[in-house]
Amino acid sequence: MINGVTQLEILDFSHNRISNDGAIALAKLISWHKSLQELKLCNNYIGSLGIEGISFALARSPALAHLDLRLNSYVGDEGGIFLCSALSQNTKLKSLFLAACGLGSKAGKFVGEMFKVNSTLLEMDLSNNDLTEESGELLNQGLIKNFKLQKLDLRMTNVSQAWEFAINEQLARNIANSTRNNINSNSQPNMKTIEES
User: Which of 91, 122, 186, 194 has a CA between 20 and 30 Å from the CA of residue 27?
Assistant: First the structure.
């Protein structure tokens, strides 16, 4: 039924226990649907197998800009690594929510590496995952080369306050650059108007 809906922009399957099989079925939709911009899959017992399917589709998605996977505690490091691999290729996704998804330091390392190459993600929620202090350092290293991300939620991740402060400095730089770019683009004279006058 969903396959025939061409104008679908938001799909919310949260709290439906779709598990891996449902996630894999939805992955097919993500990979081809040209208008689907937001997908919410909170609290669905999705594990790394389902995330692998979603990640494969995400790397090819023509439109998806917002993905919410919060409260899927079986995602784990393996699922986090799949998502990071997809985000290293994806050029559409602007926000990804992974709060309480069972991510650990391995996933934290890959998130840091993904930050170095991803140029579209604006917001990411990693709260309530056991990333550890080492992950804080790796996330910060990734953000040194990332000029796009503006919001990163690290509450209850065991990332130290010192690393959170350093990360927030990188995010503030990105916000300032974005604001400056917007001001510059808005202040450029309209060439058509100049030619007409």
Answer: 122
